[in-house]
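User: Hey, quick favor. My workstation is busy. Could you predict this chain's structure for me?
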Amino acid sequence: MIKDLLKDAEHRMQSAIKNLSDDLAAIRTGRANPALVERLMVNYYDTPTPLMQLASISVPEARSLMIKPFDATALKEIERAIQASDLGLNPNSDGKVIHLNLPPLTEERRHELVKHVHVRLEESRVAIRNIRRDSHNDMRDFEKEKLISEDDLKNGEEDLQKMTDKFIEEVGELGKKKEAEIMEI
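Assistant: No problem, here it is.
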């Protein structure tokens, strides 16, 4: 019973880490990265669709992205979505592909991005702690209902705390890596 709870908690914490990882990949650094625009929502036939489903995204040079739509009619909508996003990038289109040139980041912009990363890290830590709290409450309920012993509860709590600490540490590691990427000139 406790094993199932711990397994579920671990799965949910891994999902929180995966979400954080995806969010951090979308934060701009000095280098071009397809993840920057992959999840950008484009209005495709009145349906919000992620850009990665509408086009191939490649990195021809260190500071530029090339977006080649599978359907040429989506080109204008993709341009609109890029301009409307908070990326601050100007799409250049030749009618077939869109080129995005990433200008170097200013020191001020780097610090803003690091602050944004810290906000995302804290949100992930809170999500992981909420998962721990929910699992811990479930364990206490099991103990109240006499489904598990007091010793099982204590052991389960210890295992849950160790798991939580491990995932919180992983959040910190991801944050350090992303911060170093952003501050790298």
